[in-house]
């Protein structure tokens, strides 16, 4: 069977993995980053953002493909809310959760209420079959596009999935809800074989994925630093240490040995999801870490001569001006090498989405008009904090970045775009919560 897998904008690892599973099942698979599919092919849309459900290009592709007699299945992280996917895109079915085994049966057998792990419309009724068991952590090589080297996701051609699951419970994150909180690690030999395949296809840098990278090889929530070190050493042996990154790590999941390995076998960066300088907000977010632990983790990274980046979330429902000022103070004290700022976006299926539903619009920073110093810019409170924090962070980098008119405009545009996306996602979730 001819199958087209559409992954909007980038070749995600999940799309490539499903492509490999279907290829090894005997099907002819084409991966595309653009919204197009040949007539007569079966279309699989691998969607990783709520915004894809609202994207006219995605909607048009699915509608026109079905109007021409084609079949469309949707999978990926958006499947956490199958009723929203079905309501917005009207595909033939949704693959819910981990789809490696489900998708082969769906492609070959068609839609049936006897097939676990799918959702579909029966008239106006949404049918969700019982969940499929977690997929095997063993798998074939992904379907790697020939132009993978042209892709850059935070500097990497691709993120390699080394394990699934996360011990954390962050309220804004899908990972522990999608894959569970038990860590399932792939065999090292399988990962290295895959790294070699990516390198042969032109990948220039590979990054460790799977949530917190240093949890690779852990058992029952206990880290196994030697397994993680062997992973980085093996990847660097293929790609070269300056072509490997393992950025995403929890502040409570580092050891001296892990930090030494990151310095020796990777580009030398650690990326912490810090999110807030307020312990109160960190508790609301379910981070499982304190501001003091953040400060200690950054200091330990400095002692190991590592560059440190941090992500921050503003506009979380319930965040006060005092909480926000604490975040600004923390950034000033940490002097991070890079900072990423985002407004709190509710993702369907997460506790943050439930909180957004319960929070009145007049109390949700994503909707409350900003009345402070940026009032002439016509921003919401979350947009104003996002914009302000991006500029604030530039003042405290080890190498100060001057905020030129061009950078000012780019930050303002990004803050406004995030605000529009978050309001659209919130309205979408609310619409189905009331249905």
UniProtKB/TrEMBL annotation:
Entry's Gene Ontology molecular function annotations: 4 iron, 4 sulfur cluster binding; catalytic activity; metal ion binding
Keyword Metal-binding: yes
InterPro entries: BchE-like, CHP04014_B12-bd/rSAM, Elp3/MiaA/NifB-like_rSAM, Methylthiotransferase_CS, rSAM, rSAM_horseshoe, rSAM_sf
Residues in Radical SAM core domain copies: 152-388
Cofactor: [4Fe-4S] cluster
NCBIfam families: B12_SAM_MJ_0865 (TIGR04014)
PANTHER family per record: ANAEROBIC MAGNESIUM-PROTOPORPHYRIN IX MONOMETHYL ESTER CYCLASE-RELATED (PTHR43409), METHYLTHIOTRANSFERASE MJ0865-RELATED (PTHR43409:SF17)
Protein name: TIGR04014 family B12-binding domain/radical SAM domain-containing protein
Organism of this sequence: Methanoculleus bourgensis
Upper classification of the organism: Archaea, Methanobacteriati, Methanobacteriota, Stenosarchaea group, Methanomicrobia
